[in-house]
Amino acid sequence: MICQRCLEPVSLPIRSECHYAIVKPDADLQSLPKGYDVLEAGEEPLDLLSLIEEEMLLALPIVPAHDPADCQQPVGVTEPEPCEDEVSRSNPFSVLAQLKRDPNV
Ligand SMILES: [Zn+2]
Predict the structure, then answer these.
(1) How far is the CA of 63 from the centre of ligand 1 (A)?
(2) How far is the CA of 66 from the centre of ligand 1 (A)?
(3) What residues does each domain of the chain span?
(4) CA–CA separation, 24 vs 95, rounded Å?
(5) 95 C-alpha to center of ligand 1: Å?
(6) Distance 101 CA to ligand 1 centre (A)
(7) How far is the CA of 17 from the centre of ligand 1 (A)?
(8) Is the pLDDT of residue 88 over 60?
(9) Which residues share a beta bridge with 38?
(10) Which tens digit of pLDDT belongs to each residue from 34-86?
(11) Which residue among 15, 66, 81, 103 sits deepest, i.e. has the most Cβ atoms within 10 Å of its Cβ?
């Protein structure tokens, strides 16, 4: 999968839980517990692989992307670093220090 934010490959854990009830063609479906997908066992062997494939596709995220902390944004998209002057002017700690000095603010 390709991260839609940085276009780098991303591997995401997929979690899917499915319950299947394999029944005979003439089984009484009313007696099955709720929440089970019914698979009718006929003459054909069960195609488990395509079944799993289908479940995985359903479990895939619609927009794959890295965890924001892990995402490597391409150069040029990142926010420009504030220059030193700006940092000292808008430093939250200096604002806090001012507040402490003058409680009437
Ligand atoms: Zn990414």
Answers:
(1) 11
(2) 4
(3) 20-101
(4) 74
(5) 35
(6) 44
(7) 27
(8) no
(9) 21
(10) 888 888 877 777 788 888 888 888 888 888 888 888 887 665 555 555 555 55
(11) 66
DSSP string, 13-66: -------EEEE-TT--GGGSPTT-EEEE--SSPP-HHHHHHHHHHHHS-SS---
Structure tokens at 91: 């430093």
**From ligand 1's centre to the CA of 67, what distance in Å?**
7
Binned at pLDDT 50, 70 and 90, residue 16 comes out as confident
Model-level pTM? Answer: 0.43
Instruction: Strands of the chain (E only): list them.
Output: 20-23, 37-40
Gap from CA of 54 to ligand 1 centroid (Å): 26
What does DSSP assign to residue 22?
Answer: E
